[in-house]
Amino acid sequence: MLHRNMHINPFKFKVGKSQGWKEPDRFPQMLRLKQTGNLKHHKAACYSTLVPSDEVTVSYRYGLPVVTLMLPSRKERCQFTIKPMLTRVGTFLQDIQKEDKGIERAEVFTTDGSKIPTTALMEILLMNDFKLVINNTTYSVQVPVKEKWSREHATEAEDIKSLVHRLFIALHLEDHQLRRERELLQKLDHLREQLVPLEQMKAKIATSADAKTNRLLWTGLALLSTQGGALAWLTWWVYSWDIMEPVTYFITYGSALAFYAYFVLTKQDYVYPDVKDRQFLHYFYRKSRSQHFDVEQYNKLKEALAEVEESLRRLHQPLHLQLPIQEINDKD
User: Fold this and answer.
1) DSSP β-ladder status, 57-61 and 21-22
2) Which residues cross the membrane (predicted)?
3) Within 13 Å, how many C-alpha atoms sit on residue 292's CB side?
4) Which of 149, 195, 219, 306 measures 20 to 30 Å from 250, CA to CA?
């Protein structure tokens, strides 16, 4: 029993009947930790700039890749749906900067540090893992392997694409034809206006060149006739055939030598129609230079006019709309 006047020590406690009273330490023991190593390394560990790799993720939704990243200024995660066949890397980076005005720098590199140009398609970028640099932070982006479609799904997708293409043609082909026809007619009128003065000048030059060519042909005929008459007069009235035979031989040999020299210089046979055309072009180009007629510009306008007329002909023949120009020409 305890007496009333007994002073109880608050630091004593009873641990058991057989052990009696035990007085613990007045001051509890404390665990002391001592920092070791260089203090700079501990500070660097407290302010590490390492970024978790899952802050920028790539996933596929409805067949399209979705890039999810954390906007540095807004501290919000934002998703960007990519069209790989149409979107370029530069467009993707511009969309990120538009979404967060605090982004001053956005670039994409390969895993080995090579910079990817902004003109590259996102389809090329998403083939392998890459690094996305936003301001001074580098994100390692892992691109998941896209599941390949089975042959049945691929065939079904191709059928749907073909159906959509046919529907689009059926709904918009007539409007497209009319709009295209108006554009071609305007271009045709413009080309014809440009060709009118050139055609007039060309007709004058061609008339002059043709006249000179015909005069040259008649001059050649006159010279050959004169030569024949002179040989006949020398053979029957002045000398005999025994004397004139070697002369005619050397005249024939000289003509053959002249024809061979023509082939060597022009790489063409001495055929009278080709010789006439060649002489006509010679006179035509010489007259064109004196009249300041631009032959190259005229040829370009004529080629453009022929292309426009061919396009109009294809528009007016619906059965040939899907055929190339070569096949249309062969069928005609």
Assistant:
1) unpaired
2) 216-235, 247-265
3) 1
4) 219
CB atoms within 10 A of CB 17: 6
Q: How far apart are the first and last CA of the chain?
A: 132
Contacts 24+ apart (CB under 8 A), 99-105: 99/71, 100/71, 100/72, 100/73, 100/74, 101/73, 102/72, 102/73, 102/74, 102/135, 103/71, 103/72, 103/73, 103/134, 103/135, 104/135, 105/133, 105/134, 105/135, 105/136
Q: Mean pLDDT, 10 residues at a time, over the chain (332 residues)?
A: 42 40 42 38 36 69 85 86 86 89 89 88 87 88 72 72 75 70 87 88 88 88 89 87 87 89 85 84 86 87 89 71 49 46
- CA atoms of 277 and 265, how far apart (whole Å): 16
List residues bridging with 109 in a β-sheet: 115, 131
Residue reference for tokens 């064109």: 288
- Reported pTM: 0.42
Quickly list H helices, the chain.
39-46, 89-99, 122-125, 151-233, 241-266, 272-291, 295-315, 325-331
Q: One-letter amino acid identity for 180?
A: R
Q: From CA 154, how far away is CA 152, in angstroms rounded?
A: 5
